[in-house]
Amino acid sequence: MALSFAVVASSSSIMCKAINANNHSHLQDLSYIKRAALISDKSAGFTSPHPNFGCVIVTPSVEVVGEGYLYAQGTKPAEVLAVEAAGERCRGATAYVNMEPGDCHGDDTAVSALVQAGISRAVIGMRHPLQHLRGNAIRALRSQGLQVDVLGEDMQSKLVEEARKACLLVNLPFVHRAASRVPFSVLKYAMTLDGKIAASSGHAAWISSKLSRNRVFELRGRSDAIIVGGNTVRSDNPRLTARHGGGHMPIRIVLSQSLDLPEEANLWDLSDVSTVVVTQRGARRSFQRYLASKGVEVVEFDILNPRDVMEYFHDRGYLSILWECGGTLAASAISSGVIHKVFAFVAPKIIGGKNAPSPVGELGMVEMSQALDLIDVCFEQIGPDMLISGFLQPIPDLTPTIPSEDETFAIDPTVAPFETSIIFFYKTWDLYGAFSNFSPHPIQMPDEDGNYVTWFSVEHYYQANKFIGVSNPLAQDCVDKIKSAKSPEEAARMGRLTQRRQPHLVRSDWESVKIDVMYRALKCKFSIYPHLNSMLLSTAGSVLVEASPHDLFWGGGRDGEGLNYLGRLLMKLRSEFLGESSAASENTCIAL
User: Fold this and answer.
1) What is the mean pLDDT of residues 222-228?
2) Do 568 and 588 form a contact (C-beta atoms < 8 A)?
3) Among candidate residues 267, 338, 266, 350, the one with its CA nearest the CA of residue 307
4) CA distance 97 to 359
5) Which of 218, 223, 234, 243 is nearest to 266 (CA)?
6) pLDDT reported for residue 4
7) C-alpha 266, offset from chain centre
8) Which helix (H) or strand (E) holds 191?
9) Gap between the Cα atoms of 107 and 529, Å rounded
């Protein structure tokens, strides 16, 4: 009996140790997943909002040997950067990624990097939100023999849900865009303790402290655009800049039904960033022409309502929008269901005033039971102020998983993935995102002396060519800065700003040669990457449309009124490649 008891005790001890070891390993997994989510957000404010990817590589001896994050669309995947940092120590290691890889290279670069480096296990925080990418990388990694654990599927517990939520929150704009086809919208306002956003006179500078205003600049830097109404333009004359001395500058958007706006306003100064005015069709045509003469873009709607406006800016590729409007427009946006989160800065001040405006206008509610309750409310003291934040809408549920087109085709072969006669592409994370001039495919092009120079992307080459050959040291300096830009987005920002601010630095023949410059760059790109060439040829018979609704030269425009030169050049290139392929086939037949 004693012997039997000893054996049982020993077995129990071993079992407890195994359970403790598993729990410890489980907690480590969640810790590193949270770390991946944290670092994925590192470029916020420096680049425009994009899918946030972070990767942490950990050895079996529990040592972090490599980390990486996606800096901007069109740059190296997080997984590639982490593998490069870890080097040979990747062998047998575990890769933690906050979101399933879904790069825009067109050749599964992120997956290939993990497989070729010898990673043995991958822990993934969430599946990719986009239907055409969801599940692809997970299947690819498993097919290569890697153990893949997905939070909420292969790993489940309360702690797992907390870690998974961290992964969702860092990509909330991307998740909302995929689920609801509108950008993630945040309503921000500052009010006094008695609920006023201005005095009865309209004076509002300043309700909140400087520390709170600095936080607002951070919120702006995380947004694609900032929206205000006509009243805000007339009463406050805001600049709506991020004021961080560089990096991403959100577009300014003014919603005005009547277009009753002043001729002189800070928002008409486009030296740093663009402004878009959205209005009712036919409103003040003469003022529309005036704004156009200042370079301000005007977009008309038959009926101006926040839902239609947000769907339009979704089509422009925007992920996140910050609303800094008055109460009337805020109420309209909330009623339209386009506001997802609220940031309310409450200052310890009382201003009073029967006619002093409040943050949100009439919502048509008559009983307190109708009030909208915020979800996941947070309180944070910022200097003397209190920041109260929370969600008006729950985080979209991405489960059950919607099958991708390829999965649907496997179930029903009559549904072909590429049967559409018109193929749209725009952002690099789109299904055909590799067609974008922002895609991360370096090209080698000859310089003025015939020497081949490597450019990080087609966009780098295109923007630099605006200033190449100009006999001015400033022009050459601009070329050098564009060439070394960390992302296509930054290259485009540099080129466009310089062109706008210093037009004398732009080569005199630019308008006549820019199409040829783009075509030569595209031809190089689709010639040196076989998988891109195959992707382009697979679209034979389809019309290719660059789906930017606001670029009327390279894109197709909002209602098809754009010239779509990028799509045209790709179709021209496709015809050229198909012709070469046919000629090669004929020569092969003759040789036989």
Assistant:
1) 95
2) no
3) 338
4) 39
5) 234
6) 38
7) 27
8) strand 184-192
9) 10
| Nearest by Cα to 319 from 174, 197, 418 | 174
At 389 the three-state DSSP class reads strand
In this structure, are residues 353 and 199 in contact, taking their beta carbons and an 8 Å threshold? yes
Q: Are 120 and 92 in contact (CB under 8 A)?
A: yes
**Residue 170 and residue 220 in one domain:** no
CA angle 114, 119, 125 (to 5 degrees): 75
Predicted local distance difference test score (pLDDT) of residue 448:
83
Give the integer Cα–Cα distance in Å for 592 and 108: 37
Strand partners, 187: 323, 342
Residue 139: give its domain's CATH number: 3.40.140.10
Q: Where does a domain end: 145, 175, 205?
A: 175
Based on the domain organization, do 197 and 102 belong to the same domain? no
591, part of any domain: no
**Is 320 exposed, middle or buried, given 0-12, 13-18 or 19+ CB atoms closer than 10 A?**
buried
d(CA 445, CA 146): 39
Render the burial of 220-229: b for 16+ CB within 10 Å, e for the rest.
bbbbbbbbbb
Three-class DSSP category at 502: coil
**Which domain CATH number covers 281?**
3.40.430.10
Domain span including residue 327: 180-364+372-391
DSSP 22-78: HHHHHHHHHHHHHHHHHHHTTTBTTB------EEEEE-TTS-EEEEEE--STTS--H
Question: Do 216 and 134 belong together in one domain?
Answer: no
Query: Residue 413, preceding bond cis, omega within 30 degrees?
Result: no
Contact 224, 72 (CB under 8 A): no
pLDDT band of 407, cuts 50, 70, 90: very low
Same-domain check for residues 216 and 274: yes
Where in the sequence numbering do the catalytic residues fall?
Answer: 79
pLDDT of residue 399: 54
What's the mean pLDDT in 105-123?
89
How far is Cα 217 from Cα 212, in angstroms, rounded to an integer?
Answer: 9
Radius of gyration of the chain (CA): 27
Is the domain of 441 the same as that of 344?
A: no
Determine the pLDDT at residue 431. 85
Q: How far apart, in whole angstroms, are the C-alpha atoms of residue 80 and residue 83?
A: 5
The continuous run of DSSP H or E covering 227 comes out as strand 225-229
Evaluate if residue 175 carries a pLDDT over 60.
yes
Asked if residue 382 and residue 425 are part of one domain, the reply reads no
Position 249 in a domain: yes
Tokens at residue 11, please?
Answer: 């077995």
Q: Is residue 501 part of a domain?
A: yes
Residue 109 lies in a domain: yes
Bridge-based pairing state of the strands 452-455 and 147-150:
unpaired
What's the CATH number where 518 sits? 1.10.357.40
Counted domains in the chain:
3
Do 120 and 259 fall into the same domain? no
Residue 34 shares a structural domain with residue 171: yes
Q: What is the pLDDT of residues 265-319, one digit of tens each?
A: 999 999 889 999 999 999 999 999 999 999 999 999 999 999 999 999 998 989 9
This prediction's pTM: 0.83
- The residue from 175, 206, 233 where one domain ends is 175
Residue written as token pair 């205000």: 228
